[in-house]
Amino acid sequence: MKIFNLLEDNINDRYLDQIVEALRDGGIIIYPTDTIYAIGCDALNNQAIETVCSIKAMKSAKTNLTIICHDISEVTEYARFGNREFRVMKNNLPGPFTFILPALSRLPKAFKGRRTVGIRIPENKIACRIVEQLGHPLLSTSVEGKDEDYMCNPELMAETYANSDVDIVVASGRGGIEPSTVVDCTAGGFDILRQGKGELVL
């Protein structure tokens, strides 16, 4: 496992290249978002998604999956939404929100059978630079915390996952403990499934 220290105002391009190369090779990373640190992989690599699900002990076929996109234009390739949803996403993104939208078929096998996908565009330059350079979305699932200190501390996460399939920990200082606000857009409205860090602006 490698640990790369990156700050939003000082992103080392050499480290970024290595992170993206690892993702393209099916690697797994822990990385910062604008809420909680996340475990992720190339969202179009089916085997890597299954590995993330194994690390988190998730049943991939029954678990809601979330992807991080670079911008709303990229979201159109993976999810279906109308003008109302576009306006609300534009009002709130980038930001600490997960929008649940109908999934499109471009997503890989691990998404098959799911009718929805979670969409995030975090207000975090590191996550967004990784997605931009990768050229397509990252899978995103929060690092589960044993306690508050663990959830904030990437060095402790690196110790915990040292013998796992995690290849790189992107350490960017202390993370947050409050998750994103989850907004379900699939029933014609904007239903808050989980109130988190973000206050939705309609």
UniProtKB/TrEMBL annotation:
GO molecular function: double-stranded RNA binding
Taxonomy, superkingdom: Bacteria
Domain YrdC-like span(s) in chain numbering: 13-198
Family matches, as PROSITE patterns: YRDC
InterPro entries reported for this sequence: DHBP_synth_RibB-like_a/b_dom (IPR017945), Sua5-like_dom (IPR006070), SUA5_domain (IPR052532)
TM stretches of this protein: none
A matching Pfam family: Sua5_yciO_yrdC
UniProt-listed PANTHER family: DHBP SYNTHASE RIBB-LIKE ALPHA/BETA DOMAIN-CONTAINING PROTEIN, THREONYLCARBAMOYL-AMP SYNTHASE
NCBIfam families xref list: L-threonylcarbamoyladenylate synthase
Protein's recorded name: Threonylcarbamoyl-AMP synthase
